[in-house]
Amino acid sequence: MSQEKGPYIPYGKQHICQEDIDAVVDVLTSDFLTQGPKVPLFEQLVAQHSQVKYACAANSATSALHIACLALGVTKGDVVWTSPISFVASSNCALYCGADVDFVDVESNTGLMSVKALSRKLAIAKQSNNLPKVVIPVHLAGHSCDMEAIDKLAKKYQFKIIEDASHGIGGQYKDRPIGNCQYCDISIFSFHPVKIITSAEGGMALTSDESLYNKMRLFVSHGVTRENLAPEHSNQAWYYEQQTLGFNYRMSELHAALGVNQLSKLIDFVARRNKLADSYLEKIAKDRVLSKELHSITPSNECYSAYHLFVIQLNKPEKRLTVFNQLRANGIGVNVHYIPICNQPYYRELGFKPSDFPNAQSYYESAITLPLHPSLSLQEQDKILKVIRESL
Ligand SMILES: *Cc1c(COP(=O)(O)O)cnc(C)c1O
């Protein structure tokens, strides 16, 4: 192919402005590098944006998922279900607690947890007295799962819900912010640099339940507190108490300051991502070859997606390797989201096989994630689609 090489186009990346830099530098010269005012401010602003009462920041979404499971009492002997089409953190969090993990197959056209598969699996689990304690749906690509239906099943079968909304901040479901906890007990955001907004590393767990919030606060910081202590300690300013076995999962002030400034750009970032996604969809629909050879993963009518990822699926999966390699050879940083978690060697050791979740397997085999981030240009989009067309 006689393609101009040009600069590398990653599938996702952060968008940093001078104000982000200034915000971090200001913290460096302030009194607090950790445990100061920026983390509570970031928590308050994310809670407000998401229309949820409480938010607990952590040093990653992985840590946030872990403390969410702990707050819901997940422990040895419990079972937690999640989607196989996700990052490994969505299920590792349950293993950290000593629980067993199982997966619910996805819809083959969206990669989202299938309500039908969930419903069927619950009916069987009830008969064998092996119902999950927690189910973790994942809003893949920023497209919301059918949370209303999943919540109905939660009430029927008495399980708790953690929404892994790592891809979802800035999106909406049924005209409310994704992660708003109307249909779950705890929701999780990630602020890794490839996600919608970033704090470099960082995550947050949101809930409208005060008692879950208090538990997460303890778990995020050693299980130690200085609040609500017995009256005999009220005049002892040095006094603190370890009430449970927690971790040091705290977010630093530097990370929170970056997060606060990024949050002020969230609406613009998501609008830009939607504009670029619409442009991809339009260009693909208009192209005779592309519209015949592939289709795109899009959100349901009830969802305004944060569009963390733009995923296409090749109608002939056997062409994926060639297309993928041609894109990479042309400096286009495509990726695949995700290799089913159950396919990972560690999970195979636990007894899972790719054939256990056939929709997840077929979704995986035909998927390619195309570049999508706020600084992607329409010209770059044209180049990406041209390489795909030529390699097909
Ligand atoms: C990125 C991601 C995580 C983990 O986020 P970190 O902040 O990197 O720990 C968890 N779940 C999903 C679906 C993710 O995409």
From TrEMBL:
The record's annotation in InterPro entries points to: DegT/StrS_aminotransferase, PseC, PyrdxlP-dep_Trfase, PyrdxlP-dep_Trfase_major, PyrdxlP-dep_Trfase_small
Coiled coil (residue ranges): none
Q: Gene name, please?
A: pseC
Active site location: 195
Q: Which named protein is this?
A: UDP-4-amino-4, 6-dideoxy-N-acetyl-beta-L-altrosamine transaminase
> Superkingdom of the source?
Bacteria
Listed EC numbers: 2.6.1.92
EC class name: transferase
Source organism of the structure: Thalassotalea algicola
